[in-house]
Amino acid sequence: MIDTLDQIFVLLKHWIVSFLPGACQPAASVVISVAVIVVLFPLLFALTTVFERKGLARIQNRIGPNRTGPFGVLQPIADGIKSLTKEDIVPSSADSAVHFLAPLVLVVAVFMGFAVLPMGRNMALVDMDAGLLFFFAIGASTELSVFMAGWSSRNKYSLLGAMRAVAQMISYEVPLLMSSVAVVMITGSLSLNKIVAAQNQYTFGLPHWYIFTPWGLAAFLLYAIAATAETNRSPFDLPEGESELVAGYHTEYSGFKFALFFLGEYLAMFSISGLGTTLFLGGWSSPLEVLGWVPSWFWFFSKMMMSIFVFIWLRGTLPRLRQDQLMNFAWKFVLPLTMLNLFVTALWRFLGDGWERWVFCTAILVAAYVVMGRVEMRAEHFGPRRYRYAE
After folding, report:
1. Among 10-14, 67-71, 210-214, 387-391, whose mean pLDDT is lowest?
2. Which helix (H) or strand (E) holds 206?
3. Where are the alpha helices (DSSP H) in the chain?
4. pLDDT tens profile 358-377
5. 3-state secondary structure of 318
6. Which of 26, 107, 159, 292 has its CA 20 to 30 A from that of 34?
7. Is the sign of the CA dihedral 264, 267, 272, 278 positive or negative?
8. How confident is the model at residue 390 (pLDDT cuts 50, 70, 90)?
9. Do residues 46 and 76 make contact, with C-beta atoms less than 8 angstroms apart?
10. Helices (H), 231-354
11. Which comes out higher in pLDDT, residue 247 or 204?
12. Which residues pair with 206 in a beta bridge?
């Protein structure tokens, strides 16, 4: 019964495919899996928008959506209808072909990233030996879509927003990759399924998740910072700074094209949260061995939605950074710490199983954080004043 509940979606797909001719079954299996992803995550996107707007309203002492449907739960449907019925305006001087393709490239690239995420036991669409490499390779194409949108609009604010977004995404993609390399060094594989399997072990009923190690906790925090910037979420939402750039690279987008950009950014948040869950939080494994009877897909989506909650919490709490603070933080603080963490990970790998490696690795990371934090604070307060207003 437990295995049936855990594999209910896999068994259901096999049951549907069994009615088809043998020659069509492999293709039908792929089509069904892709259709589930294409339907499931936009549905989660719709529900999360209500959850985020309600959460931000609660943080800011407001009510939030409460008119469309009971407690405002049908607000995403109203927003979707509004986007479909609004006029699609394209500037007369814009490159119409590139302007049309930019949001499509973003959405397609993000959807392809879900193909390698193991969302449960035997629930990965494609089991690649280099799944992590594929994920980052596909994710890099989102920068192309952002630049396509800004350049094709023939609008100086759109172009400035696109350049700022590309600079930010490239700057934080480096520490995002380097923090993931630490997991690869310990696991010895680029396969996301093998990374989950390496963490799906228990000692005294407790899991061996990588976040419970000094190097894993440091890599997870650095990954979370880089992921927040990579998805343009607050406090790193400078590409969409309304007070400076109108709406950034999608200023000249309206109607359903704008909705596609909105969808793509949320799906990227789901995707990068799912990858963080896989790398550091054990993927679909349970937090306690006694809870192994709970379906594996439940644990994966629970951890992913908890990450989404943190994104929303940060948006309602932290103010936006300046552009110089954003770039300095990436290159002078986050990236050096990720490089140091790779050194600590190598020490952890080869120092054995004694308690000495816990003390030694933790001391290095804490000392580096304190020293670099003090250096950054001194540079901010006593450095050049070219970014400050004239007195």
Report:
1. 387-391
2. strand 206-207
3. 2-6, 8-17, 25-59, 75-85, 96-113, 131-139, 141-152, 156-187, 192-199, 214-230, 242-245, 255-280, 296-315, 323-329, 335-350, 355-382
4. 888 889 889 988 888 777 66
5. coil
6. 292
7. negative
8. very low
9. yes
10. 242-245, 255-280, 296-315, 323-329, 335-350
11. 204
12. 203
Amino acid identity, position 357:
R
Contact criterion met (CB below 8 Å) for 245 and 157: yes
- Long-range CB contact pairs, 150-153, < 8 A, 24+: 150/248, 150/249, 151/95, 151/98, 152/94, 152/95, 152/96, 152/98, 152/99, 152/102, 153/91, 153/94, 153/99, 153/249, 153/251, 153/252, 153/253
pLDDT at 391 over 50: no
Interatomic CA distance for residues 327 and 240, integer angstroms: 16
CA distance 81 to 85: 6
Pick the closest to residue 171 from 232, 120, 99 (CA basis): 232
Q: pTM of the prediction?
A: 0.91
Query: With contact defined as beta carbons under 8 Å apart, do 136 and 230 qualify?
Result: no
Q: What percentage of the chain reaches a pLDDT higher than 70?
A: 93
Cα 165 to Cα 250: distance, rounded to the nearest angstrom? 11
Give the per-residue SS3 of 12-33.
Answer: HHHHHHCCCCHHHHHHHHHHHH
Q: Compute the C-alpha angle 267/115/30, nearest 5°.
A: 125
